[in-house]
Input
Amino acid sequence: MGIEKRTFKHGFLWGAAIAANQAEGAWNLDGKGPSVADAIPIKSNLRVTDYNGHNAVSDEDIQSALNGVNNIAYPKRRGIDFYHRYKDDMALFGEMGIKVMRVSIAWTRIFPTGEDSEPNEIGLKYYEDLFMEMHKYNIEPLVTLSHYEMPLILSEKYNGWTHRNVIDAFVKYCNVCFQRYKTLVKYWLTFNEIDSVMRHPFTTLGFREQKSTPERYEQDIYQALHHQFVASAIVTRDCHQIIPQSQVGCMLTKVTTYPRTCHPSDVEITLRKNLENYFYSDVQVRGYYPPLILRSFELRGITIQMEPDDLEIIRQHTVDFISFSYYMSVTESVQDNAERTPGNTVFGVKNPYLSTSEWGWQIDPIGLKISLIELYDRYQKPLFIVENGIGAKDIVEDGKIHDSYRIDYFRAHFEQMKEAVNEGVDLMGYTSWGTIDIISAGTSQMTKRYGFIYVDQDDEGNGTLNRLRKDSFYWYQKVCETNGEDIR
Ligand code: BG6
Output
């Protein structure tokens, strides 16, 4: 008798993913406070080199964002008006047949300043209605508690997560959410792409470079990260207590990283890059700081201030599953003049064997399989791909969008997922990114589209906001219906 081929398990969670700050709009309605995302302007003419570094936002930028009435420059403030249109959008998702939908809660809808004594009832009710609407279509919510936004006021007052008080503010916000949504939400994620703190600390930590010094820069960011690790462990504990059937995951940016050549120096630099890449999940999955990272802190003169219980809290409250985004891979090289390529918050060395998206992100389906195998072998915990997709310019012809390039991208990735599952990887679900076109996180463009559902809006906010089904909509519908069997 032959060996049975393994495929996606029964109840595999096929789904969709968006984030509040890129979709909802209504940035200052119904009591919502300003978040860091509301102060980030559009960058449509981004040069390749601009993707590098920490995307610094100055105090003056923030002041002018707050004073400015020119909302055109701040597309995340308007999103795709998901705030008002979510019922119609959920009907479309229901028609697509998805089983899970990843959304995030905007912290500032619940606590506008982050430290208000009482939560904002209108904000709480909004998400309650949203989750109930999902259940109407048998769609399970998967909720990120912090997706690239935090109260702007906490960023100003404390230099974001560098201050320990932010842990208490976050824990309070999360507990309010767990209590309110305990019958509606089972799957939770704490911090989106927690490993990206060094790459863009303003969006992830509310960190202002001007409030630090070049000497303290790394120290401050790792301190802020430590506070997020502690906060994540505390809320994992609280979530398990308040919602016993809940499952809490960490969320990583998985940019598979290869050596550019087999020269031992390229292999070594890649090894170091991957030690850093795995540090974040090591803490959240294994429950301790890896010894090599601690030693590297020591060698770099970085000292993290910790309270006596911090390490014990981190040890005891590890995550139930590992979620990650996957768009691309990069290579590393010691050659200073190696050609570089932009990507998902990274700026790696170009791989001559890969093609790229219109935004230069390298397309590497095999890299997804490699990541799945690496992560599962390292941790043996269920994996959940919670972002994947290709940003592309779509053309509407007679009300139709023939996006065969998008279908090709997904098909190639699903083939690799199937292979990983057959090889024994425990994959619990998959949510495509920006399943309905939303504002780009990196550039704030609308025309960088990821969706199966088209939204009629341009970069300046012109358009009817009408939704259209792309060809890929029907293709993904078939994927969901056949549990990934039919990906032709
Ligand atoms: C991920 C983020 O890094 O990449 C998303 O979690 C983001 O918020 C996605 O939208 C794609 O990046 P971009 O810059 O093309 O929107």
